[in-house]
Amino acid sequence: MIQIHKPIGQAPGEFSAAMFRSQLPKNGEPLIVSFHSEGGSLFEAFAIFDMIKAYRGRKVAKVEAMAFSAASMLLCAFDSVEVSPNAYVMLHNPHFEGESVDDSQKRLLAQLRDRMVGIYADKTRRPRSFIERELDREVFYDAQASIGLGIANRIAPATLGVVARLPQRIVARIRSSDVSAKARWNTEVKARIAAGKNGIDAVRAVDREFPGLRLQMLAEVNKR
Q1: Which of 1, 94, 99, 204 is the most buried (most CB within 10 A)?
Q2: How far apart are CA 202 and CA 196, in angstroms?
Q3: What is the pLDDT of residues 193-214, one digit of tens each?
Q4: Is residue 63 within 8 Å of 83, Cβ to Cβ?
Q5: DSSP 98
């Protein structure tokens, strides 16, 4: 199983197209990819997408907790997509980091958006106009809604996999605490969205201000 459990890109700590290529099965056996990613570089994601589409064996995606942004686009390359009961899938428009975008970058973003719209529309069999509206809205779909959208096929049983990968000090805190990490996480993210941040920036802000809270929340929801 290939695990995309990092942001997508070429920087240290990110998951690149080269990493994906090096882990592809060699004998045509089923390609199974586990997702827990906030997205990242759309160019790296396109490279990974094309490799998945070209793979000749059966292709199965498993979303453990999140497939946001470019990661959700990758789901569209698979034959089957499973989501955990508490997983979320997020769609939004491509963007450059920073505030100012010149005319050349605007044209590039329009081209990238057009390709993304086509990919989502082909997977979900929804009209392009519907996908365009969803990208503009920056929508977070829970497990059931992602099936309704047409990106996911089924809800898989929850596992303790995320807990098992956490440092023991975090695991101990989760199991001994009466405080709901999920409630804290949702409250903090919603507060930042209400203050004007978009969804992914709100998530990043909470990550910076509350180190470890996302891991606690993911472990909590996946052990239920």
Answers
A1: 94
A2: 9
A3: 767 777 777 788 877 777 777 7
A4: yes
A5: S
Task: Answer whether 60's CB lies under 8 Å from 28's CB.
Answer: no
Superfamily of domain 2-155: 2-enoyl-CoA Hydratase; Chain A, domain 1 (3.90.226.10)
Q: How many Cβ atoms are within 10 Å of 82's Cβ, its own excluded?
A: 21
Token pair of 100, please?
């100012």
Residues of the chain short of pLDDT 70, as ranges, are 98-99, 158-180, 183, 187, 191, 194, 219-224
Buried b (16+ CB within 10 A) or exposed e, 145-160: ebbebebbbebbebee
Query: Using an 8 Å Cβ cutoff, are 71 and 39 in contact?
Result: yes
User: For the chain, what are the domain ranges?
Assistant: 2-155, 161-222
CB-facing half-sphere around the CA of 104: CA atoms within 13 A:
0
User: Cα–Cα distances in Å, from 88 out to 69, 114, 135, 138, 155?
Assistant: 11, 23, 15, 13, 11
Quick: pLDDT tens for 36-75. 999 999 999 999 999 999 999 999 999 988 999 999 999 9
Per the CB < 8 A criterion, the answer to whether 109 and 95 are in contact is yes
Q: Tell if the pTM clears 0.85, that is, is over it.
A: no
